[in-house]
UniProtKB/TrEMBL annotation:
Keywords: Coiled coil, DNA-binding, Repressor, Transcription, Transcription regulation. It comes from Lacrimispora amygdalina. This is MerR family transcriptional regulator. GO terms for molecular function: DNA binding; DNA-binding transcription factor activity. It comes from the Bacteria. Residues 13-80 form the HTH merR-type domain.
Length: 282
């Protein structure tokens, strides 16, 4: 059967085709190269011409691309096109978009937590002056120190914790510090069993190493020092006991501003040492 020739008024130049679909000429040349949409003819100067009957095809390509489809998948959909195959492609893309939304919502949550973390720094506190403060419940990932903590050991242990969280698909956006076990408070080996803690979102994760810090009353002390200085802990512990409080759990030395915030005035971390307490019965 003879194919009817395309009339002149049915021919569209590459520039017209591109303008009609808000594309560039380079895009249509690329579509030709990958076999997605080939022109009906190319003249001796290499100029491409399309048929008006290809407009619906390019229109659909543009629609699917606007919906986030990959060109490779769009090309395959035209090789075996039916309502069912297109619907399958659209459902796969919807699933992909749903997953992206879920990940973006998690990222947004971590951004909000990080913003809140820094907003809390606007509270004014007298440095190295103990106070009593109510703090809500928290979940933490705990990773023990391999030996007596120092700056290098702290950073290396912290990276172990961070990498563990990254492997779980989360972000350490709510702070970190040193946890000291209450069983060692009266021991000369204070940091036995101690380690790094990283605060994790309440709604996430029940993995090994996750511990819950219950809400309660804490004896706190804001300080410029590293989150493992023994003298800071002993000072706050002594004050707590002198004020008629009993210690009820592990101590947390939360790092609020780390090395990245050092300046000419302070070249140590800004931390908040926290010891859970209750008022001693009279």
């Amino acid at each position: 059967m003879e194919v009817e020739p395309i009339m002149a008024d049915e021919i569209v130049t590459i520039s017209e085709m591109a303008k009609l679909h808000h594309l560039t000429r380079q895009t249509l040349i690329y579509y030709d190269h990958i076999g997605l949409l080939k022109p009906v003819s190319i003249n001796e100067h290499g100029y491409r011409y399309y048929s008006v009957y290809q407009i619906p095809v390019l229109r659909e390509i543009c629609l699917l691309k606007k919906l986030g489809m990959k060109l490779e998948d769009i090309k395959k959909s035209f090789e075996n096109r039916s309502p069912d195959t297109v619907m399958k492609l659209l459902k796969l893309q919807k699933d992909s978009v749903d997953n992206q939304i879920q990940e973006l919502n998690k990222t947004r949550m971590h951004l909000e937590q990080r913003i809140k973390f820094y907003e809390n720094l606007h509270e004014e506190h007298t440095i190295h002056t103990p106070l009593i403060k109510e703090i809500g419940p928290r979940k933490i990932l705990f990773v023990p120190f391999p030996c007596e903590p120092c700056k290098n050991i702290l950073h290396l242990t912290l990276m172990r914790a961070w990498n563990q969280l990254f492997d779980w698909g989360t972000v350490p956006s709510s702070g970190f510090g040193t946890l000291i076990r209450c069983s060692q408070f009266d021991s000369e080996d204070l940091y036995r069993g101690a380690g790094i803690f990283v605060v994790v979102p309440d709604q996430e994760y029940n993995f090994p190493g996750i511990e819950e810090i219950p809400e309660g009353i804490f004896a706190c002390m804001y300080k410029y020092s590293f989150p493992y200085y023994k003298d800071d802990f002993l000072s706050l512990k002594e004050w707590t006991e002198s004020q008629g409080y009993d210690i009820t759990g592990d101590a947390l030395d939360l790092c609020l501003l780390d090395t990245t915030f050092y300046n000419s005035e302070h070249e140590v971390d800004y931390c908040c040492l926290q010891i859970p307490v209750k008022k001693r019965s009279s």
